[in-house]
Amino acid sequence: MIIICSIRRFSLVVFACAMAMSSAVLQAEVIPVDNNDPVLTITGAQVSYVRAPPPAWNPEAARSAEQWQVMDGPINFGYTHDAFWYRFILENTTQKPLERYLEVSYPMLDRLEFYQWHAGQEVARYQTGDHLPYHQRPLKHRTFVFPVSLGAGEKHTIGLRVQTSGAQNVPLKLWQPRAFIQANEVDLVGRSMFYGMLLAMAIFNLFLYAYMRETSFLVFFAVQLCLLIAVASLHGTMFAYLVPAAPQVHELLVLTSVPLTGLFFCLFCINFLRLKQKFRAGYHPLRISVGIFLLAGLGGFILPYGLSTRLSIGLLLLACPVILWVGAVLAWRGDRSGRWFISAWLVLLLAATGLILDLVGVFSSELIQNFGVEVGAIMTSLVFSFALGERFHRERKALTEEQQARIRVMREHEAVEHKFLESVRFHHLTGLPNRPLLEQCLTQQIQAVEGSEDCIALVLLHLQGFDDINKTLGHHNADQFLQRLATRLNQQVRELPYRVIVAEGNGETFAAAHVEGITFGCVFRVPGLEIAQSLVQPLARAVQLPIRIHGLDLSIRVVGGCAVCPDHSKDAQTLLRQAFIAFDHYDTETGLIAFFRATADGYTERRLTLMTALQEAIENDCLTLYFQPQVRIVSGEVTGFEALVRWTNPDHGVVDPEEFIPMAERAGLMQDLTDRVLDRALDFAYRLESVGHYLTISVNISVVNLLDPEFPASVAKKLEKHRLEPHKLVLEVTETAAMKDPERALQALRSLHDAGIRLSIDDFGTGYSSLTYIRRLPLDEIKIDRSFVADINRNTDDGIIVRATINMCHALGYQVVAEGVESAAALKELSMLHCDYAQGYHVSRPMPETAALEWLQQKTAKNPA
Fold first, then answer.
1. Is 36 helix (H, G, I), strand (E, B) or coil?
2. Residue 675, Cα to own-chain centre: how many angstroms?
3. Is 249 exposed, middle or buried (0-12, 13-18, 19+ CB in 10 A)?
4. Stretch (H or E) spanning 782
5. pLDDT of res. 418
6. In this structure, are residues 589 and 574 in contact, taking their beta carbons and an 8 Å threshold?
7. I need a surface site. Which of 392, 520, 735, 840 has the fewest CB within 10 A?
8. What percent of the chain has pLDDT over 70?
């Protein structure tokens, strides 16, 4: 402690010597206090100061120190982090005790300590500042006010220690209490009027934005709101009345409201003056200013107070000339908005510039400090409000004229739109309701019968052979025929019991609808399915009666499908889909209209999903080949393998070939699939030959392949690629495939046969082929379907059919392969019938490539012959 005290004394001595050497010590004037003046403004000549005293200075050292200097101007040192001590002497020149209020009228000082001494004794001490809670202030006021008691004829020394990160601005006034209260009331009324006017204009602009959706009003509302917050914060009103217990919030409001005011004013300038369209040279600097102001606002959260305020003021000083330049250029060009803008901006610019110069200490003006920005803000808001109102009037007038022109155009298009809407609801040619109206009616009827025993029957009628009428009589006559047929259909349905009215329009009632193309629909609400069946068949027959066109009696075949709610579905779109599926199968029914059967529905979500997955599986080579051996029945010798494609889908598991092969044919994937299978099967055959097994390899092909003229050449190239003799490949085609297009299939098979490739008819006996046609095919073998072979030893009829088939094929020079051999008894029976080859589970199940090779090695080892 002794060492510390010694250091403090030494520092005080050094500091005193330095001050004595640097400047002469001057004595400030004594301030006489009497009852004549209600308020005394304490000038710089009446105040002494010490800048940046040693940290060890305490109030006692400050009171007794002699190195004070007298102020030579206003008590304003601008932005500095240094601490200052101020001292002045008050002398009561009356013979009565006096009570006074000392006001430091600049409210933005971080820390302020007040000391009052008399006769060497401290009589009062207060500590306050805008970094301390409001309740610590001796007198509750937006500025810093201290009570001062002066005895009769006494001299009192007042000391102030001020440290702030903002402007070191310490304007001092000594008030009589009554005069201070009166002045405070006037000040409060004036500021309330200012805040109220600015807030009212801001809210008014917000209402205008809500009504007009004009961005300028919204941005100007933000300008006025931020300006209001900034002014209220800078003058201490915000701290005194809204956040008295949160000085940190008050500081944050000060640091963010000023740059946000600049930000929104730049945005207002851009929107109000339409800079992007009118003056792009001014648009870009202001957009950059917006970004910089935004960064400055965000900097208020992290930067020190002094740096943040300097940054904001510096940006304002840079942005003001740019804004002034932009407004001046547009005003010089004769733009009305530019003239209003430059007038309003000059008012605010003068007020803001005065306040900034006052804060940085260039000059000091109490009037500008207290009321400059308020008056400037009110005047600017009024001018801009007039400007916005005038522009609103001009734009509203232009908008009214534009709307009137638009109304004229809309009226001109109204008839066209009405026709268009009618075309959406009604078919343009037949005049019948379109499919959406049919679906809407169907949905309503489904809801209506819910909980009852009635059924809703949807009937679709499709015209067959309409293309013949088009091609024979031309489109115009065909359209007339279609119109008359639609009229007849609508009349016929309306006359039937249980029919449902689909729609009404154009003064007519419609019981039939146009679904698509040459497909029509109608709806019946019937007590049971049997009644529906009794209604729809006569309807189809009545519709297809002849229609006379230009002296010709024309008739057309009508077929259809019917789906019933709730038996088939309770959804309108699903019923429509099921009815479409149903008329695909009309020829399997007893009448012209087929009813939907779930077993005939191959159009499922699973099918669509698998079709997409199948394409990916083919492209990514994810299909697997299994190989099932074929043996000569007499010797048991393995003569070849049949390649069987298998697919395991990650989501649906193993997919049966009978399901995905038709998918590949419908989706146009069959050629790619056959190419992949052929390549891998021939590669397997080559591997067999490389280990000494010269066997045939059988591959199934589709009707799609037979109808492809390039297929024979493609197969020949693959054989050459894999270095295999053509007779080692057996291509299997079903009877049905060969009969799809007999002549083209025959041509393709002959080309393959001429190339040396063996040909086989697969699943013989299950199709509808003609024996005359089969005899013309260049075949090498016939494969008897497994349905005849599986029970050959138990079913006499199967045995007779197989015997007849074998005898016939041998007579024609074909070899015979029996599929589906699943027992030794069946194999024995086939041997007795002189069948050539056998294939089935009794010989071996289909195996992957590696397993097939191992099986063949074992089989060869047991039976070398």
1. coil
2. 43
3. middle
4. strand 781-784
5. 66
6. no
7. 392
8. 87
- As a whole number of angstroms, the distance between CA 300 and CA 254 comes to 9
- φ/ψ of residue 146, rounded to 5: -125, 135
User: Residue 491 and residue 547: Cα distance in Å, rounded?
Assistant: 14
pLDDT at res. 358:
59
Helices 466-473 and 475-495, axial angle in degrees (round to 10): 140
- What average pLDDT does range 781-799 have in this prediction? 85
Mean pLDDT value across residues 197-214:
81
Residue with tokens 């010089």: 332
Q: Is the pLDDT of residue 716 over 50?
A: yes
Q: In the structure encoding, which two tokens stand for residue 595, read together?
A: 């009813």
Residues 262, 299: Cα–Cα separation, whole Å: 14
Where residue 744 falls (left for φ over 0; alpha for ψ -120 to 50; beta otherwise) is: alpha
User: Strand runs (DSSP E) across 7-104, as ranges?
Assistant: 30-33, 39-42, 48-51, 69-70, 76-79, 84-92, 98-104
Q: How many CB atoms lie within 10 A of CB 801?
A: 18
Contact at 8 Å (CB) between 716 and 753? no
User: In this structure, are residues 429 and 466 in contact, taking their beta carbons and an 8 Å threshold?
Assistant: no
Question: Of 147-151, 343-347, 492-496, 586-590, which range is least confident?
Answer: 586-590
Band of the pLDDT at 816, cuts 50, 70, 90? Answer: very high
Q: Which two tokens stand for residue 675?
A: 């190419």
Of 513, 517, 522, 525, give the one whose Cα is nearest residue 436: 513
**What distance in Å separates the CA atoms of residue 460 and residue 584, rounded to the nearest whole number?**
11
Q: What is the pLDDT of residues 39-56, one digit of tens each?
A: 998 888 889 998 888 877
Which is it for strands 172-175 and 557-565: parallel, antiparallel or unpaired?
unpaired
Q: Kindly tell me the burial class for residue 762, based on how many C-beta atoms sit within 10 Å of its own C-beta (0-12, 13-18, 19 or more).
A: buried
Is residue 646 very low, low, confident or very high in pLDDT (cuts 50, 70, 90)? very high
Within 656-710, residue ranges assigned H as helices are 657-666, 670-690, 703-706
